[in-house]
Design brief:
six-stranded parallel sheet, 14% strand, binds magnesium ion
């Protein structure tokens, strides 16, 4: 169960992550989850708030997107939209995608964090690959079906002590 406990838990979406704190903690690279973390599912719209936050990310960190999404065209679009290399079909929590991400970032695991909204994929996978993790909530602008919120909250139950 300790593998499911995020290094950092943010009570908010990605824009609530304090990037200065990450820098001070020695973080130089970020592996981003795509769906719900950077984008609303099946969406290609980025809010101005997210855009401003990502500008600061690009200025301070090396970045890569690691997604379980199987739609290659969609992930390619995200790659262009965010200006980050993106890996689709990652099968998180399997390790290979995280290892590939580290190769792309050209950074050791100790200098990288995984940022995502799912304990059972992003957090577990990151930890299995020896990478610190940041659990965020889905973007506020997303209106997701109630059953999805239910499962997300259920997953969060696992990480409470
Ligand atoms: Mg996600």
């Amino acid at each position: 169960m300790v593998l499911l406990k995020p290094t950092y838990i943010i009570d908010g979406d990605i824009t609530d992550i304090n990037l200065d704190h990450l820098r001070e903690a020695g973080v130089r690279g970020i592996i981003f989850d795509l769906d719900s973390t950077l984008l609303a599912p099946k969406s290609n719209v980025v809010s101005t708030e997210v855009e401003a936050w990502l500008k600061k990310v690009h200025e301070n960190f090396r970045v890569v997107i690691l997604s379980n999404n199987k739609k290659d065209d969609y992930v390619k679009q995200a790659e262009k939209l965010f200006g980050m290399p993106a890996i689709a079909r990652a099968a998180k929590p399997r390790r290979w995608g995280f290892q590939k991400s580290l190769e792309i970032l050209k950074l050791p695991a100790e200098q990288v964090v995984v940022v995502g909204d799912r304990p059972l994929t992003d957090v577990l996978g990151g930890h299995r690959a020896g990478i610190k993790t940041v659990l965020v909530r889905a973007l506020k602008t997303i209106e997701e079906p109630a059953w999805k919120t239910f499962f997300r909250n259920l997953e969060r139950c696992f990480i409470k002590n």
